[in-house]
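[Meeting: bench + compute handoff]

Bench side (C.D.) handed over the final construct sequence. Compute side (W.E.) agreed to return the predicted structure before the next meeting so the bench team could plan truncations. Sequence as handed over:
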Amino acid sequence: MTSELKDDIENLKPKEGARTKWLMILITLLESICIFTLIENREIIDNVHRLLNSILLGILTAGLGQSLIQLFRRVYYSRLAKFCIWGAINGILSSLWIDTLLKIEPTSLRILVDQSVGTPFFQSAFILFNCAWENTDFLSSFRQTFLKMLGTSYAVWPLCSIISFNFLPPHLIFPFNCFVNVLWTLALGLII
């Protein structure tokens, strides 16, 4: 074979980066389709187990947010896996937290408790999870990221609480929370 022919054959092969990006596009599309399918079949899944929807929607929305970030950055499948696992944990914790908050009256107190207790708790839980995943020191990471994450979260989550607890029926609060979580995961991905 001539060197020209070898070069032509080599140029026809997809580059690793292009293949990886196409795979990430496919993953993002599949996550989106799964989210819509899950929402469409929410009642059926609730009959299997009350927290199954929370786990699945948490995984898919956290994964979607991370996939969207990686469409424009370098692809790290381990980071995608990390956010999906966090999504499962966060899905359970958020669902239980929302159930707890719905018992608090009046609504203004519910929002205050959500923002003063829930927001710092969830930010701390994510930092702890991230440190365990990355095998890094919790106190050092907490000092470096907590206030920055908390400040960013207060730009997003209070409005989510106000909308959720004032305007949405209880069965839509968690899915709305997950939708906002996609945006939040994008913000987290830019911070961490």
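W.E. noted at the follow-up: Residues 3-191 form one domain. C.D. will use this when planning the next construct.
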